[in-house]
Amino acid sequence: MISAAxxxxxxxxxxxxxxxxxxxxxxxxxxxxxxxxxPLLYIVAASxxxxxxxxxxxxTAGMGMVIVLLGLPVYWVWARxxxxxxxxE
Length: 89
Description:
single chain, mainly alpha, about 80% helix, flat
């Protein structure tokens, strides 16, 4: 299950880059220390750790990945419903 948590940590840090790209003028009450170098290093290191976990603890880490990937169809349906509601208004 650690690999599943690492995916969410990586996505959270990647969200910093995405938000700064899409909303450069947004208020930032919390600063990302060492941006962009440290967040990028964290993404690289966590991805490496996740890769090692998948190689050496395949069964355990694989089940965590399956659980996370099962959430993708739910997210896609939710996003599509939200988009269709917005276009109907």
